[in-house]
Amino acid sequence: MSHPAQHVTRNTQHATRLLLASSLLLLFLPALQPLLSSSLTCGYDNIFHLWRAVEVEHLLRQGVLFSRWAPDMAHGYGFPLFIFVSPGSAYVVALFHMAGLSWPVALNAAFGLGMVLGGLFAFLLARELFGTLAGIVGAVAYVYAPYQAYEVFNRGSLWEAFAWAFPPLVIWGLHRWTVHKDRRSFVVGAIALAALILTHQLFAFLFAPLLVGWVLLAWYRTRDPRALLRGAAMGLLGLGLSAFYWLPGLAERGYVQTGRLLGTWVFDYHNNFITLADLLAPPRSVDPALINDWPPKSLGLVPALIGLLALARWRRLDRAQQAQIALLLLLTVGFALMTLPVSLPLWEHLPLLPYVQFPWRFLSPAVLCLSLLAAAAFDSTRNAQHAPRVPCRVFRFGFPLAIAALILGNIGWFYPAHCSPPEGVSVAGMIDWERATDTLGTTAKGEYLPVWVRRMPESDHLREAYRAGGPIPRLDPESLPDGARILQADHGPLGASVELDTPTPFRARYLAFYYPGWRVWVDGEPVEVAPADPEGLITFDVPVGRHTVTVRFTETPLRLAADIFSLASLLALIAALLLLRRRVTQPLSHPVTPSPSHPATQSPSLPPTALLLLASCLLLLKVALIDRADTPLRHTHLWEGQLEGAEVPAQVTFDGQFRLLGYDALPEEVPGDQPLEVRLYWQDAVPGGPDYRVALTLRGEDGLSWSSPDLRPPRWHRVPSPAYLWPPDGYALTAFKLQPLVGTPPGVYTVTLGVFDRATLAPYAAQDGSGHPFGLEVPLGAKPFLYM
User: Fold this and answer.
1) Which residue of 129, 142, 673, 763 is surrounded by the most CB atoms within 10 Å?
2) Is there a contact between 652 and 768 (Cβ–Cβ < 8 Å)?
3) Between vectors from CA 154 to CA 274 and to CA 292, what angle results, nearest 5°?
4) Along the chain (788 residues), what's the average pLDDT of each consecutive run of 10 residues?
5) CA-to-CA distance for 158 and 191, rounded, in angstroms?
6) Which ranges of 166-200 would DSSP assign to H, the alpha helix?
7) How far is CA 467 from CA 77, 81, 431, 463, in A?
8) With a threshold of 0.70, does the pTM exceed it?
9) Are the beta carbons of 681 and 732 closer than 8 angstroms?
10) d(CA 153, CA 527)
11) Alpha-carbon distances, residue 555 vs 503, 549, 552, 564 (angstroms)
12) Residue 487: other Cβ atoms inside 10 A
């Protein structure tokens, strides 16, 4: 019979955990607030992930639990998207939609779930290493990381954003398994690693140095070489569980057109480094009137400063703790340097790095390391002499300040613009969207089209079939000879069974792109399949007479081997779970040293009610003050048609349609081989009117043009929506790179601005604020500048 005091203690622990969980969720809520909407943020990848979820749901409703082939994409001809693109996050959105949420809300819910899970798992990891209060600091630093906000709200990359949830859990399991030999953590860590790979395989690649470093750290701390074996075993099990996905994708890259991607300037790593100023961006002020606000990709100055506080107690740490802090600091700096131009030699000489495409992707592992450093600054554990590692006054005053600084200092990244969701969200709508946007299968450049597709088919047969609804007949009627009859047909998403009668033999064409794994049987006998040139459609021979033709997308020997590898890994995982159940019923033969998260190792912390009060006050400050009033963190620069903060104010109107509010000052001197960046601020004077196009010209003293007419936006810039969609109380920033012609001589030049109707290319005449005409070109700057 249990003692009443035990019940009281247990109830107290439950209440404390409940208050802690409630406080964490309240702390996360301001970060989640932009997702509590029925519209989508204007992240430019949102629509891609929406269509991927539509495809996954369409397959699920037809009984296909997993497919490597996306049958309804690429204008309905299908392609092997899910061999190369991790499908995990698309399943989350599809399941939310199947549960009754609208598509935009389902997508927002998936983003929000990823952020919450990432915060909770970061809390578990930081608590494991440094105690409960440090866990809260680490979780807040992780959730409010500026780069995570960019991924979720501005880039809209769901698979990368959702993948943020898993690295803390992988490290948590790895640490407890390699250092404390906790078998439960071995299972959890392996599953988390597999989930990470199945959500975004490149994300797992970026975190590999951290995983390897953590295993080496465990070996250093325990002085036990078996720690290396334990880490390798967990990694192998995680790789094995996900091998059915990543192994075919790795082996079959030669079957798709990945070269399309590497040859595009947008995806060239040379054009995607960030600056040191962006990397350590200070707290930013948000202007709600700016239509296309685009925050920098950043670690943030505030998290960096708080992370450096971990070094303040360096001399008080033992060797193991110093090694842990040193590893986190080294990795944070190393990952950060990979985002800067100084790392260019590595990008040019390491063979796999160009496939990362964007150097700023290394901010993801840097954020986790920096979040753990921030947590280490508030280590709430006790040392071997049971003395607090950090003085209690640091927690009393420093902890609330750190939480407030991490939230308020980064809140400027959490005010994204919202856009209306697309209409007609269905597989038929997806095909119409592909054609309207010249996009293939939610890819940037059609990089996963099979190599046999050299030209897209021009027939509208499939498009009409999708619009009609129902099963999609893919046996091309135009390939049937005269007199041939289809007697019965059963069409599915990954194949068909057709009974037909033909008076003559013929070469049948199946309206799906050829790819290894497509097989055809005629009356149960396999026949040769070949791609048609140049469309790459499946073709095969059908003899004279009555036959049953079966077409299926199947597993190749390589994919089957990967499936077996994953199945064997799953069996090993089940065996580990069964072994774990046996061992937990047996008494331990030796004591286990408690981890820092154990209450016995904790120093006195803030009362749970105080933590809940802190979270509530910060939420109230955000909702009641920052969101509603002009503050240094959020205020508009546009007042009564005047733009405050423009380096060169202007009041130029183009035929009463568009108003130039100002521009950034041009430099006095520019190197002759460098483009000139021009930033302009606009307001639409007639909302709902036409859209416009800007022309910038570099004119010499001779009046001739010395620049290319092609204007390219800088990589940091988000091109605004068409002008007719702008609200009357908003304004937009447009930025262009003005490229001088090859051989432009040194001299004095002027930049002139012209505006054209985007549809008709008719020029607009410019007038100043008093209505006096400028002509068709407006010179920018009070004086010319010098090209060196």
Assistant:
1) 142
2) yes
3) 95
4) 55 80 95 96 94 98 96 96 95 98 97 98 96 95 98 96 97 95 93 97 94 96 92 97 97 92 80 96 95 95 97 86 96 98 95 89 98 93 57 75 97 94 90 91 91 92 89 90 93 95 95 98 96 96 96 98 98 88 48 45 65 94 95 92 89 91 89 86 87 91 88 89 88 93 86 91 89 88 62
5) 20
6) 166-180, 183-199
7) 15, 23, 9, 6
8) yes
9) yes
10) 50
11) 34, 19, 10, 12
12) 11
Determine the angle formed by the axes of helices 4-32 and 132-143, rounding to 10 degrees.
Answer: 20
Do the Cβ atoms of 474 and 509 come closer than 8 Å?
A: no
Burial pattern 688-711, b for ≥16 Cβ within 10 A else e, equals: eebbbebbbbbbbeeeeebbbeeb
Q: Which helix (H) or strand (E) holds 773?
A: strand 773-775
Q: Roughly how many angstroms between the first and final C-alpha of the chain, as a whole number?
A: 90
Instruction: Give dist(CA 553, CA 531) in Å, integer.
Output: 14
Task: Please state, in angstroms and rounded to a whole number, the distance separating the CA atoms of residues 629 and 672.
Answer: 46
C-beta neighbour count of 293 within 10 angstroms:
19
Tokens linked to 760: 């008709």
Rounded-to-integer distance, Cα 34 and Cα 216, Å: 40
The one-character DSSP state at 6 is: H
CA atoms within 13 A on the CB side of 448: 23
- Confidence (pLDDT) at 601: 47
